[in-house]
Amino acid sequence: MTAATISPKPGGLKRLVERYPFLPALLIALVLLALNGFYQPRSVSFIGLTGLVKTYLALMLLAVAQTYVVYAGDIDLSVGAIVSLVNVVIVVMMEKMGGSGFSVVAALCVGLLTGLACGIVNGMVVAALRLQAIVATFATSIFFTGLALYVMPVAGTPAPAAFWRTYGGRFFEIPFVFYAAVVLALVLYLLARTRLSTQLLAVGDDAQAAFQSGLPVTAIRIKGYALCGVFAALAAFCITGDTASGDPLVGGKMTLFSVAAVVLGGSALSGGFGTVVGSIIGALIIGLINSLVFFVGTPSEWQNLVQGLAILVALMAGVLVGRRARA
Amino acid sequence: MTATTQTPSAPTPSPVLTFLKRPLVVALILIAALLLLGEALSPGFASGQQILRLLIVAALLGIVAAGQNLVILGGREGIDLSVGGVISLSAIIAGNVMNGADSAILPAVIVCMAAGALIGLFNGLGVTLLRIPPLVMTLGMLGVLQGLLVVVRNGIPSGLAAPGLSRFVTQPLLLGLPGIIWLWVAIGLLMAFMLTRTVYGHRIYAIGSNEQAAHMAGVPVRRMRVSLFMLSGVFASITGICLIGYSGSSFANVGEQYMLASIIAVVFGGTPLSGGKGGYTGTMAGAVLLVILQGILTTVHIDESGRQMVFGATLLLLMLFYGRGRAMRG
After folding, report:
1. Residue B8, SS3?
2. Which of B70, B92, B97, B209 is surrounded by the fewest CB atoms within 10 Å?
């Protein structure tokens, strides 16, 4: 900055949003939280918030998964199918191995590997074979759904008690999901400091420039998809802990919500700009909208419509505010 | 192109190869191959009657894909994820307005197309005035429409197709072909004429390949884009109306399966998602290709799981035949 570039100093608020793009989303989330508390005081109690986190931790993780692909300007429409696949794989494995503590740990490891493998497949198809991400990951989602149906043709196999009791349980009076959230925060913090996050953003910002400055663009995009698969597997663990059973179609509806959460969080679908924190808040916004619509006393048949409208409005607001901040 | 544009350093590929690489030709060859495969797997698959049935299903997909095609051609990451919601909504509205009476077909068509155009208008305004990315805007709209469907379905019965509409979709009308096929052919001719011979069509390609340049050249970019989304809504509503004629009555989320299928039909037709090039003739072939593939998979006796895996893998394989992204160059 030289004296020649004296320009009206950007307002403090604008600079703040520039530095923390998720601030608008946080504001929306806080307003929604306050409204939730106004209409149903118990919803902001400790138990109420535990329930919210327990139900929406899966979507938060899936939104995080989607974020890493969106960083690089890609998209993954198969995340829901990966969730379904990992869900049935771990439930079947835990059941086959007798449901002991060891079987749970073994199944979770296999689940993580399954997610990783799915992510790598997506990455190969999109980045190495250079197919268009939207249609290619839709095709892989059909494939993954087929695999899930092969592993478990009909929904209903219960997960062993050792698993969901832990997920829904408490340790030292603190619910397990909060420990999970803390560990997640730590992992995300560390990931944000790795080179991969920066590289993904660089590729999303301008793939050609990234390539010309020597970055292995294809490998980076594959890594983004792989990371996405791993977080989708983690999301599947949470779903399994929450529903305590296997369902080969459980994640299908979550794909589009994960994209919505990323946008709500202020990330740009065109890539190169975004934060995982924003996506987590985006997932929370969806959860808070859903519960608020319920608490306000909307007639049941109107709830979906009101939720849909509220999410559309929030999406628009997210895009507009995000752009204002970057402009 | 004239011979002078050929540089000696880059040998031009043989005309045969160029011809074979055209998306439409690729799609037609694949269609023929799949028909042969289907006939080999289950004799009678490629019989006239069966092909006619597949063509009716392809017409349902092809009509909604026309709108999708236009939105994608218009570029700027154009895509319409709300078509599935429009189809479901229009099927249920059409069923209730008709309620089994031939005299009510015209009002039903008008109401549905108006609804489709209105939804498209909202999509288009969101994309142009508020500059929301099309994927986000139409995704949000899809959520709204799904909610609207719940409200509508709780309030009114699922509706009944008029016999005249069912005949139009399923029974032979002219030269042994049902009305819907003729409608599809007409739409195909209109689209081809519009895209190649009219100012409007040229402007679609113009905004799709370089919006800035089109704007400089005086193309009303925003109004164009809004109109493309409106057309997409209208085409989706037509598919919705025909769908209730095909199935007799509407059921929950009939349109859902058309959302990504319409996009894949466009891609299989040789229109890349980046827009600006391609056309509708290819998309028609793409729709037929997709429907034949699904037809084969339902005829062969394999589990649902195997069917899905084969379907997904085949889609990926087929995508390799079409335009892949350019490799990075230093």
Report:
1. coil
2. B209
Residue of A104, A120, A124 whose CA lies nearest to A165: A104
Measured distance CA(A158)–CA(A108) in Å, rounded: 16
Quote the number of domains for chain B. Answer: 1
What ipTM was estimated for this complex?
A: 0.82
A302 pLDDT exceeds 60? yes
How buried is residue B81: exposed, middle or buried, by Cβ count under 10 Å (0-12/13-18/19+)?
A: buried
Q: Does residue B95 form part of some domain?
A: yes
| Whether B242 contacts B66, CB under 8 Å | no
* pLDDT of res. A10: 55
| CA A13 – CA A220 distance, rounded (Å) | 34
CATH of the domain at B151: 1.10.3470
> What local confidence, expressed as pLDDT, does residue A224 receive?
93
B77 CB neighbours in chain A (<8 A) are 269-270
CB A280 within 8 A of CB A265: yes
pLDDT of residue A12: 67
User: What is the rounded distance in angstroms from the CA atom of residue A262 to the CA atom of residue A281?
Assistant: 9
The pLDDT of residue A135 is above 80: yes
Contact status of A326 with chain B (Cβ, < 8 Å): no
Q: Which whole number is the average pLDDT over A231-244?
A: 91
- CB contacts of A139 in chain B (<8 Å) are 264, 312-313, 315-316, 319
Residue B94: give the domain boundaries.
Answer: 47-316
Nearest by CB to A306, which of B131, B147, B267? B147
Report chain A's terminal Cα–Cα distance, integer Å.
18
Residues within 8 A of B (CB atoms), A 166-225 only:
207-208, 211-212, 217-218
How large is the C-alpha radius of gyration of chain A?
A: 20
Residue B132 lies in a domain: yes
Residue B325: the pLDDT is 67
Residue segments in chain B with a per-residue pLDDT below the cut of 70: 1-13, 20-21, 155, 157, 250, 323-325, 328-330
In chain A, the domains with their CATH numbers are 21-326 (1.10.3470)
Q: Mapped to the 3 state alphabet, what secondary structure does chain A carry?
A: CCHHHCCCCCCHHHHHHHHCCCHHHHHHHHHHHHHHHHHCHHHHCHHHHHHHHHHHHHHHHHHHHHHHHHHCCCCCCCHHHHHHHHHHHHHHHHHHCCCCHHHHHHHHHHHHHHHHHHHHHHHHHHHHCCCCHHHHHHHHHHHHHHHHHHHCCCCCCECCHHHHHHHHCEECCEEHHHHHHHHHHHHHHHHHCCHHHHHHHHHHHCHHHHHHCCCCHHHHHHHHHHHHHHHHHHHHHHHHHHHCECCCCCCCCHHHHHHHHHHHCCCCCCCCCCCHHHHHHHHHHHHHHHHHHHHCCCCHHHHHHHHHHHHHHHHHHHHHHHHHHHC
Q: Would strands B172-174 and B177-178 be described as parallel, antiparallel, or unpaired? A: antiparallel
Size of interface A-B (CB pairs under 8 A): 160
Residue A212, pLDDT > 90, answer no
CB neighbours (10 Å) of residue A96?
10
Alpha-carbon torsion, ordered A221, A227, A228, A234, to 10 deg: 180
| φ, ψ of residue B177 in degrees (nearest 5) | -105, 140
Tell me the pLDDT band of A5, cut-offs 50, 70 and 90: very low
